[in-house]
Design goal:
The chain has 84 residues and is mainly alpha-helical. The chain contains four helices and two strands; from the N terminus they run E-H-E-H-H-H.
Amino acid sequence: MVQYKINEEIIGEPSLKVDEKKDDRRFAEMLSKYSGISQEKLEYFLEKHGVEILHKPDIMGLDNEQAQKLEEILIMLEGFNKKM
């Protein structure tokens, strides 16, 4: 993830900007390598629905193996978030 700090004196309040397109592309690439789902399909659904696709893989019309792989990724990410 790329973050850019915006100085308070320039804008009026501090915030961060994220390069969402680049992050979505990279996330789609990683998901594709593990799940067998095309990167283009993942990029499209990430843009339209965000990471919610991990909770509702049926919206992408996946086969059982691909849906199972996404479920495994979701379980792994949820476990990682609990440790933080």
